[in-house]
Every structure is written in structure tokens, then in C-alpha cells.
Design goal:
homodimer, 560 residues, alpha/beta, 20 helices
């Protein structure tokens, strides 16, 4: 798709996956790294450069052979890139050398972001003395984070200062480095967003994901993050805003903290593909690696092209780290081969304890299925995380008045019992018609799949909502003080041709909820399974009663 | 995942994609083909062999450097493989050299299959004389197929003999080759199934797909094929049965004809990855290339691991052929970059008219979306194929008696109008209780997403079906000869807690159908769109009437 050659500083797994994406587009790549580095293995060329990306002459040698330079790691010799940019304006370097230089120093990076109005943990530079660290303890309180400004990754170079007694060991651990301190962010989740900055400065983002660290190394990534839509939107906005402040094109990994109170703080930015974006290879039409290649060459990206492949696509990425005994990590890899929906990506590296050897992407129609498959791959050692808090609602329960709540709550309890994410609120057709309009017209785009509407008397709510949405609407006639609820029943069920309301029996919110679950189950297998279990249990209940009736006889049964 | 090195005879695009899959599993590959062949480009090695896969010494050289030998093309020197197998029993060769040899001769291949009881077009060997060809015309009738027994691919070596006057030109075109003739198969569709034969002789298959040829070259592949489930099952069964008759492990591409009368005939078999399986790279968790690598190394494949990624995954593959003017095919490639859900795979080849340069996979939640995106990629030149015949039903309409049909047919017409695949039948709760049981319990596994049940009087059908399935059931009370249908309404709507029936108004099958469409639309965006258009149209209708009423006054309006 482009006759220019891309030079990549660094040939580890990120470089390798960049090369894979480039080759699929017939784009040539040359690598600077040690001989036989992972990226070099999958691109035959006599023009790769052997050496280090921190060695100025090696960088210059690569630069002399390519049209576009980029990086798979930020710890490159940025000074020589800045010089090269001046000497050879025709050589494109992405992201801009100044951006790489700025991001390399995590304290300068943070100052830059805070200066641009990006929410981030409060940070101060420190002198490497006990007095300086004590003063920070007094300012920030404990714990606080002591961090190396440079050459830090995968948690190396970070130290949690829990109390004043930690200070001397913290200094001992990090004393050889330039340091800064960060106020402690008490986070609920760690989020990450991959952002593409295009040559014209515009930004596009992948969905916000949730990262789970283990021993300071990325362990699992849940895509999308199990957070409300509003948080998802805010996370992407913050990430795009942050990336927009840097120069040059390419993909950026933005790590964030979601605090207990819902606030989102930017943690740090990587000016390159990122571990939290590996899921995109199997879960999105365009991977983060291809997006980077396209961005630095000025090739376009489809509208919405960074979304998950389908509305029901969910993914979990599991990192494969070198085990303590040689090739012990292959056990997990072997289990991935026999797990449906799992795809194994190995990096061509020599195994070493804790080294990133590969990753496994698990893709399925729901996070529940992904988690089940993850458990299979992990074996019995690690339990399934069954956390599904904050899932966005699939069913909306609305009612005309709080007096309907005792009836409708029964349905809500059924949804809860089945683990269906739902919401409950009051919407009155006659008293809040505009609220009703907004609710009905927005429900589908918010991800609601079925609306349950309860109403009594004239009972216009279900029918009116049905008229303003294309979602299935289930009507529950609520029994009023007169006419035994037949008025509500007729008002709800006798809809004119064209606007159906799925009407259930008077006061029977249970059936409304079960019907909503059937609607979901027709497309979401996990609910199908739960429904089958439910019907087995209600059958058992009747059979139990029958057994007792047959045993004690009907007269005694009646007398109980 | 395996320390053995795989040698591949042939380094075109199929070899290249095999290499890509192997590299992701840390499996080393060596290629025999011309220097810088597509597969060699993406595997750095000084041990690749330059030369031809028909040259015995080159094949022997590759064999000396690897543990396992396989092919990306069947036109290799099979004799040397047979010798090698005898000389070096420890060298694994997949598929077995005898299999490759047998399949190379298309006439012998066909005789073998027919001998094993596989349905295939009747075939006879011919002498290259006009008399012989005339005799075949008398035997088979016209048209018939004259085919080269060897070295044929992409339609080269095939000649349609339409009548006796074609015979001399047919002979002229093919006279230098050994020939055979096939009886003409008047097919409705061409199907293909990729089958994996494992080392233990067991077979696994991907879904049956539909291939569309253009100038005898594969143009489009629809996955899954737009055929009824029963045909899908028969096609896979036939393909697996055929592949089971060959020795050795690996993937086989099985091409078939679906005849007008529903019969399926085997066309031909390729003992290697196949163009009709390229969709698996983006639409299945495990691609045909990875499946081949796993099969020849004896690595396992997940149960159901060859299925499409999710129950709603649909895919279209478009081949990118070299255009008549240099790089003209890049126009289609560029449009694919801006098309959501499209993934471009280029093969690193020099462009030449008609040459397979790459392919584009389009994946979406429905075939309708795939086709829309395909049209975008193809530009205005090619119209969208809107063929959706034979789609499996999403909605089942059932009724207790044929006397309910006039009411229920109105709903069927609505489904038809919306392009929803559906089925209509009679199921009586009281007169065919076992048929009802079968219908209700099997509906979900057949792919039905919603059942519409109409009944009058005691009207037990909707409720009984709801009790025996977890699908959403919509009940239509049909007005009987007495009680104005209120008896049916109450019988259907007043279900006990636990078993909901979505009840619509008396005789209102329209609303039942629209409700079923809403259930689908909550998960299938194409119906959402159609519903929105429908509601705009009924709004327009009312507004039109209002305009007339306001213009001519209510008295005149009434008198009309």
C-alpha cells in the first residue's frame, strides 16, 4: 500500500507485531536491534541493523536506509533523533523526537500533562536525600509513590513509600536514578486506552479497557472495561485530549486510574503500541499495530474502525510470562490450543522467568464466556473472577408511579437472580411526557435491549414508550383500586396495529422479567443456560410437592 | 509450541500465510521456492532452498534440513516424496505422498472418490481424438466438461464442450495434455468446506461456504453459505467423508456443487490450504493455516474450535487480483482501509494482470452488513448481491388450526416485508401434543430466535410452547365464534408466574410480527434500521391524512 520503508528502533515483541501488520500491507520494514531479535525473525532482509537503539551510530545507520523512522520502545537515543530531524527534514520520524524525549522523563511528562490541564496525580521532583523524602511524606501523606524519572517499565523503578520507616530502603533501591514522587491514587480500577494520533493532529481511540497487574506486570486486560458508559466515554476523552498535546503521528498507550469517587487520573503515556492493546489483534478489525503503521504513513482508518468487531464482541488478554522452570509457560499455551475462542501469539524469544513470552487473546460473545474460557486456560490454580459490577444495563424497568414499585420490584429481583444488568426508574407518561420521550428514544443507543414498563388505570406508559422506540417493550398491567386491573390490561394489550406491546398477566412482573431474559437469551447463551437451570428448579419444586401429596394424601395435604 | 522445523514445498501466498501462523506459535519454517518468494519474505533464514518444488534435488535438499515436510501446492514432485518416505521413515510428510500423487491426477482422484462411495459427477477418461469426444457427447449429452487430468488450477485446463461444433477447438486448446471428461453438473451454488484430517485419521470441518467464481477464478466467498442448515450439515458430512479416505494429516479444501434438486456432488479436492478458507483468518478463532500447522505436528484443536467466532459472525472474502493497469488493484485496497470490519491481506507479490495479489476479509454481525461493506469496497461498478434465499428462519409462526391462518398470515406478510427469514406451520396443543413438544424443544437449536403462536378458544398453544422452550413466545389471541376472543385473550395472557407469554391484542398478528422484529432488532442492526424506516412511513401516512382532513374539513372527509 506504500512503497516507503519503515525503520523500527527496537525489535522485541512490539516491533515483531508491527512487522507482521506491515507485511500484510506489503510495506517493507527494517529493524535496529540485536541479531535475530523477534521482529527480525519474521522479516527477511540483509539490511537490518545489528546493535542498540541507544547507540547513535546504529540509529544513524538505520536512518540512512529508510524513509520513515518509528519506535517500539521509548528508551531510545532521542538526542540523535532530534539531530537527524534537523539534518534530514525529508526523513519522517514518528512520534516526533521531542515527544519521545519528553515522555522518556516521567516527571517532565507529568508536568507537561498537568500544564495542559490533564487530570493526573500531583507530582514533585525530589532530591535523593532522606530529608527530601520526609518532606514529601509530610506534604502528600503516606503511602506515596517514589518513581524513577527515566528507564522505568513494568513497575521497575517504582517504590511504594508506606511510612517514614520505608524511606531509607526506598533510597537504597532507587538511589542511582533521578527520582520524583507522586501522591498516592487510591484507585478502584486501572484503565487504558490506545489512541491513534494522525498526521493532521486528529485523534481516534479504541475502547477503554481494564488492566489487571500482577507483580507490577500486566497480567490480564478486559476489553471493554467493565465500567458504565459514562466512565468509558470520559476515559476515552481524557486519553485523546492527552495524546493531542504531543507532536507526531502514531499510536499511544494511555494508562489511567479510576478512583473510588469516579474521577479519572492519567497515570502515564507510552508513545508506541502497548501491552494493553494486544487484544485488538483478534477483537478489532484493525489492530493497534496496523493502526500505528497506517498513522505514520498517513494511510486512512475507517470511521468507527477502531471499535470492537461486533456489538457483542468481548475479549480478555492473558500475558504469557516465562515460568520459573524452563518452558513451564507452555502448559498454559497448550491449554489455550484446546480452548475455543483462544488465540495464541508467541514472540520467538528464549524463555526466562518473568519474561513476556507471548499472549493469549480470548474472544467471545460475552465477558462471562471469556471468563469461563480464561479459567479453562489458567487451569484450577486461579479462580474465575466473577466480577461483573458496573455492567451497563440490558433491561430497563420503568413504571408510571412509585405506587407500582411493590409489583415491579418482583421483576427486578428476578433479573438480579439471573445476573442480568438492569436499571429501575420512574417515568410517567402523563406527568413527565418529555422525560418519557427522552428515555424511550435513547434506550437503544445506551445498550438497553428490552424495556419493561408497568402502569395502572389508563396505563399509557408501555404503549407510548413502544411508539417511540424500536426495542421490544413488555407491559405489566398493575391492578388498581377498581376494576381489578382489567382496565390496565385492556389499555396495555389492545394496542393498535403497528405498535406491539408484549403484555403479561395482571401484576405479573415475574413473567415480564422472564420474558425479558428470554429476549436476551435468544442471543446471549449464558442466559439460555440459566433459564434452563431455572426451569429444572421449578419443575423439581412441583415434583417435590407431588411426591408429598401422593405420600400423605390430599386431605392431610389440604389441612396443612 | 514445538521444536521441529517444518519444510514447505512452495512459497506463494498459501505458504506465506502458513509461515505467519507457524511464527505465531514459535514454530520454525523453511521454504523451497524461488528467491524472495512471498513466504520467504516473512521468515528470515539462511537455510531456505532456492529452486523449484518439482526439482527432485531441491526437494531432497529441503528434506535434509527439516523434521516435517508439507506442501502449499499439489503440483510438486510427488515421486521424490514417495522415495524420501521410504528412505527416511523418520521424516514426516503431510499429507502422505501417495495422497498428493493421487490428487494430482484429477481423473484418478475422481475414480478414487467414486470408488469410496462419494457422490461426484460421472467421469470418463478420453483419448485426444474427435471420435472419442463425440462418443462422450452421445453418452453425456451437451454441454459437458473436458478437463486436463494434471497441472490444472483456477479453471486453466478446463473446457466447456457446448455442442459437437466445439470439439475441434476444445482439442486444440487442450491437446497437449492427458484429458478426461465430466458429465455437466447443473449447479445452483458452488460450496466449499475446509476439512482438517488429524494424525489419528479423525476429521474436523469448518462451516460450508459459498464460492462465487469470476472468469474461473475465485472472486467471493460467503461464510457461512446461504443455504438451509440441513444442506450445511450434508455438505460438511460429504466433505469429511471424502477427506477421511486419504492418508496423512493436514487441511484439505473440498469443492462441491449444490444441484437444483438439493443433491450435493463433490467437484474436487485440494490437499492444502485453499482460497475458499481465507475468511478463517479473521472470522474464526483458529485459521485454516494454523489448523494445518497444528494437524501436521499433532497439536490439538479445541472442540468447536473451527466454528465462526460468534453465533452472529458472518464474513465475505474478496480476492484482490492484479488489475490490467499496474497497481490498479490498489484502488480496492484503499477503499478497504476506510471500510469498517474489512481487513486487507497482501501477499508481497509483483503485480500482474489477473494475479492473486491479496484478499480482503469483511466480518460483521450479519450477511446484510457484510454485503453493504463489500459494495463500499467495490465502489459503484459492482452492484450488491442482495440474495438471501434459503436463509434459516429466525422466527417461527405456529397456529393451532388452519382456521387461524387468515389472521396469522397478516403477521407473516409483515415479516416478509421486513426481509426476516421465517417459517409457518400448524402445531396443535391438543391434537398434536408430541409434535408441539418436538417443535418447542428444538426451535432454539435450529436458530429460531422468537416464536409467534396463534390460538383461539382455550388457546393453550402459546403457553404450552412457552413452557417447553426458553425462547420468547408471542401469543396472538384469535377471535372465535363466541365471547369475541376475550376467552383466547385471557387464556393466553393470564399465564402463571414463571412462564411468560408476550401477548398482543386480539387478532393482531401484525403487532406479533413487529414485536418479533423488535426482539431481533435489539441484536441485529439491519432490522433496527428497517423498523425506523417503517415508523417514519406510518407517521407520514397519518400526517398525510391529517393534511387532507385539515384541507377539506371533517364533514367532507367523513362523507368520503
Amino acid at each position: 500500500m506504500d512503497s516507503r520503508t519503515i525503520g523500527i528502533l527496537g525489535g522485541g515483541q512490539l516491533g515483531r507485531m508491527l512487522v507482521e501488520a506491515a507485511s500484510r500491507l506489503n510495506i517493507d520494514t527494517l529493524i535496529l536491534d540485536a541479531e535475530n531479535a523477534p521482529a527480525k525473525q519474521i522479516r527477511a532482509s540483509t539490511l537490518h541493523v545489528n546493535g542498540s537503539f541507544s547507540d547513535a551510530s546504529a540509529v544513524r545507520e538505520l536512518a540512512s536506509r529508510v524513509d520513515v523512522l518509528t519506535v517500539e520502545i521509548e528508551h531510545v537515543n532521542a538526542d540523535v533523533l532530534i539531530e537527524l530531524q534537523k539534518e534530514k527534514p525529508e526523513l519522517e520520524i514518528h512520534p516526533a523526537p521531542d515527544t519521545i524525549k519528553l515522555i522518556q522523563d516521567k516527571y517532565m511528562q507529568k508536568m507537561h500533562l498537568i500544564g495542559k490541564g490533564i487530570a493526573a496525580p500531583e507530582s514533585v521532583s525530589v532530591e535523593n536525600t532522606e530529608e527530601s523524602l520526609k518532606a514529601i511524606g509530610s506534604k502528600f501523606g503516606y503511602p506515596y509513590m517514589l518513581k524513577s524519572r527515566t528507564q522505568a517499565y513494568d513497575g521497575r523503578g517504582n517504590y511504594v513509600v508506606s511510612s517514614v520507616v520505608d524511606i531509607s530502603s526506598a533510597l537504597k533501591a532507587l538511589s542511582s536514578r533521578p527520582l520524583y514522587a507522586e501522591k498516592w491514587a487510591q484507585f478502584r480500577k486501572e484503565l487504558a486506552v490506545m489512541v491513534v494520533r494522525q498526521k493532521d493532529g486528529s485523534t481516534l481511540s479504541y475502547p477503554a479497557v481494564e488492566t489487571i497487574q500482577k507483580n507490577n506486570i500486566c497480567h490480564l486486560v478486559y476489553a471493554p472495561a467493565r465500567i458504565p458508559d459514562s466512565v468509558q466515554t470520559r476515559a476515552r476523552y481524557l486519553a485523546e485530549k492527552a495524546v493531542a498535546t504531543f507532536a507526531g503521528a502514531g499510536i499511544f498507550g494511555v494508562e489511567m486510574f479510576l478512583l473510588e469517587d469516579g474521577e479519572i487520573l492519567l497515570n502515564e503515556i507510552a508513545p508506541r503500541p502497548h501491552n494493553s492493546g494486544h487484544y485488538t489483534i483478534d477483537a478489532c478489525p484493525t489492530s493497534q499495530f496496523e493502526a500505528h503503521i497506517r498513522a505514520i504513513l498517513g494511510l486512512p482508518i475507517a470511521k468507527n474502525g477502531l471499535a470492537l468487531s461486533t456489538p457483542t464482541t468481548n475479549a480478555i488478554m492473558l500475558n504469557v510470562l516465562g515460568a520459573d522452570h524452563p518452558n513451564g509457560e507452555l502448559e498454559i499455551c497448550k491449554r489455550s490450543l484446546i480452548t475455543r475462542g483462544a488465540t495464541l501469539h508467541l514472540y520467538g524469544k528464549i524463555t526466562r522467568p518473568g519474561r513476556k513470552m507471548g499472549h493469549i487473546n480470548i474472544v467471545a460473545g460475552s465477558m462471562y464466556e471469556c471468563e469461563t474460557r480464561l479459567a479453562q486456560i489458567q487451569g484450577a490454580d486461579e479462580a474465575v473472577s466473577s466480577e461483573i459490577e458496573d455492567e451497563k444495563p440490558l433491561v430497563g424497568i420503568i413504571m408510571g408511579s412509585d405506587s407500582d414499585l411493590p409489583v415491579m420490584a418482583v421483576g427486578a429481583r428476578i433479573l438480579k437472580q439471573f445476573g442480568v444488568p438492569f436499571e429501575v426508574t420512574i417515568v410517567s407518561a402523563h406527568r413527565t411526557p418529555f422525560r418519557m420521550t427522552k428515555y424511550a428514544t435513547e434506550a437503544a443507543t445506551r445498550g438497553i435491549r428490552t424495556i419493561i414498563a408497568g402502569a395502572g388505570g389508563a396505563a399509557h406508559l408501555p404503549g407510548m414508550v413502544a411508539a417511540m422506540t424500536t426495542l421490544p417493550v413488555i407491559g405489566v398491567p398493575v391492578k388498581g383500586s377498581s376494576l381489578d386491573g382489567v382496565d390496565s390490561l385492556h389499555s396495555i394489550v389492545q394496542m393498535p396495529r403497528g405498535i406491539p406491546v408484549a403484555t403479561v398477566a395482571i401484576n405479573n412482573a415475574t413473567n415480564a422479567a422472564l420474558l425479558a431474559i428470554r429476549n436476551l437469551a435468544a442471543f446471549m447463551p449464558e442466559y439460555q443456560l440459566k433459564l434452563e437451570q431455572y426451569y429444572i428448579s421449578i419443575e423439581d419444586e412441583v415434583l417435590g410437592k407431588a411426591a408429598i401429596l401422593e405420600k400423605i394424601g390430599y386431605e392431610e395435604y389440604l389441612s396443612k
